[in-house]
Design a protein that fits this description.
6-stranded antiparallel sheet; 3-stranded antiparallel sheet; alpha+beta
Length: 172
Amino acid sequence: MKKPPVIDLNDAVQHPGKHLDFELSTILEEEEDLDLLEPVTGRLDAVSTGNLLLITGEFKTSAVVECSRCLAPVQSDIAFHVDEQFPVEGVPSSGGGNTFAHVEAEEPYPLFHGNNLLYEELLRQNLLLALPQQVLCSEDCPGIPKADGDEVHGHPAFEKLRQISSQGEKTS
């Protein structure tokens, strides 16, 4: 199994007030449900307050999404902002002592291995939240076209029940 890409944020965690700035570009290889046309690119900034690790950034990409009416593929430009806070436990090394500060991120989908940020997972989560809810291929999209002569009766599994029901109506 391939190791996930990480960013070492230990320097920021151990030295409160120190900003770490990263230029990132990724194609999110592990994301199967998203069809990216270009890499996710942007800048990420991390700084510790001593009690919190603050991570902010601006990112953009382009993806193919489905039209909400006709399900045709539509190219959509997506820009999103990352603004996360994670609790920091322990005493930073700059404060002296034998202990070290570490990020205590309690997530159902972990974003940290020690003080290393799994940045692709962070970007994936924020990108999925930024996807447009309803995209139209055009303002006058007619929706899914029906074939000539097609009558919609519901799910095919209920066709037999519909026939029995219509026979009962004829005899009454």
